[in-house]
Target: 2Fe-2S iron-sulfur cluster binding domain-containing protein
Amino acid sequence: MGNRHDDTGTPRLSRRAFLGTTVAAGGITVLPVPPAVAQTPGAADSAPMPAAAGEPGRPGAPNAPVTLTVNGQRHQLALDVRTSLLDALRETLHLTGTKKGCDHGQCGACTVLLNGRRINACLTLAVMHQQDEITTIEGLERGGQLHPVQAAFIAHDGFQCGFCTPGQICSAVGMLREVADGVPSHASADLSGARTVSLQDLSEAEVRERMSGNLCRCSAYPNIVAAIRSAAGSQR
Model:
């Protein structure tokens, strides 16, 4: 079909002819760029990206002054308020003896002592412990002498790859204190506290139950239990 004419005799482009002309010309319609969007060449590369709110290490991150007492030393730090105690120890203070295993509180590799009590460092924030005494595996020895539990682990070969060992030792130190304080376990015959378990009669079943939160992928459990019972005997 060709062009049509209106009543005045002026040629009028038909719809089909218009579409054909548009396709032949490339079918591209160029729209003007709004002034607010228009950029000069290279502007996208040079323009700074807006800082994500609260992203660590970038402007706007919620850093705060934090004072931690670790192994008897006070440390003045500036930390993202969301930093776990584990990350503060490893990444900021470089106390890498405390290991990051599962980072979900399931393996016990990150166990440290908080005021003498064992905790998973991956499950708590550093800013929560500014008034506490934190002890890591590096702080157990005194005057160049190994802690009795450390010495027992060596004597009884209580480790293989060694990855879980710092957490095992810290947990064992805390656990022996619990026994000395008369804290029962699910393996204790008397849970009322009237008849407590002592370090002198700490059985294999008691050790296994009390240490069940610390996993050893190498399965060195028999030697770990023997080491802990030996250390308990030396602390009577």
In short: The chain has two domains: 61-139, 141-236. The longest helix spans residues 165-180. The longest strand covers residues 63-70. The two ends are 109 Å apart (CA to CA).
